[in-house]
Amino acid sequence: MAIAMGLRHVCTLTVFCAIVLAASAISAPKAASSYVVEGRVKVEGTTTKLPLSKTANIKVVLNGGEQLTFIRPDGYFAFQGVTAGTHLLEVVAMGYYFSPVRVDVSARLHGQVRAIAVETRRTLPDALVLEPLREEFYYERREPFSVVGLLKSPMGLMVGFMLVAVFLLPKLMDSIDPEEMKRVQEEMRNQPAPSFSNLLQGRST
């Protein structure tokens, strides 16, 4: 009788433990699956490897700084432990501007990535190749030499006026009647120069 009671207690305890374990397993949240998001940063004019000076200045940012990584010399990068859902990918590179990229990681398709450039709304290839939209210049670019620009400048206008005066004035002088020129010169010579006192008197009147 005592043995039967003991077996009953053991069975009851075993069933109770099984129920507790099953309940804890059901109530415990499942760990979210994580995936790898990888791609390549491609700068125009580079085919195989980027110079070390360029790779050191190019970084890829996930979700505004949640994860950050620098690209390898071959331009590739990878983010580990990315959960399923929508993420924002940004490339920070001195001298270049990249469009932010919306990355959709599918749990149903086992981490398949679909990427869309935010600014151009263009779907990127499955390889996730990121290319700059344009170059950025942080200093004012010096305009190339232009003859038209030189002629429009104040110095160019002054030089042009002097050249016109040098070449045209002698021709204008030759076209004037010598007798008329002589008469004008004599009138100017005979006309008395105004004195300082006369100027003051003229102002007072």
Automatic annotation (TrEMBL):
GO terms for molecular function: carbohydrate binding. Belongs to the EMC7 family. Residues 51-158 form the ER membrane protein complex subunit 7 beta-sandwich domain. It is a single-pass membrane protein. Residues 183-205 are annotated as: Disordered. Keywords: Membrane, Signal, Transmembrane, Transmembrane helix. Residues 192-205 have a biased composition (Polar residues). It is found in: Membrane. Residues 1-25 form the signal peptide. GO terms for cellular component: EMC complex. This is ER membrane protein complex subunit 7 beta-sandwich domain-containing protein. The chain crosses the membrane at residues 155-173. Pfam families: EMC7_beta-sandw.
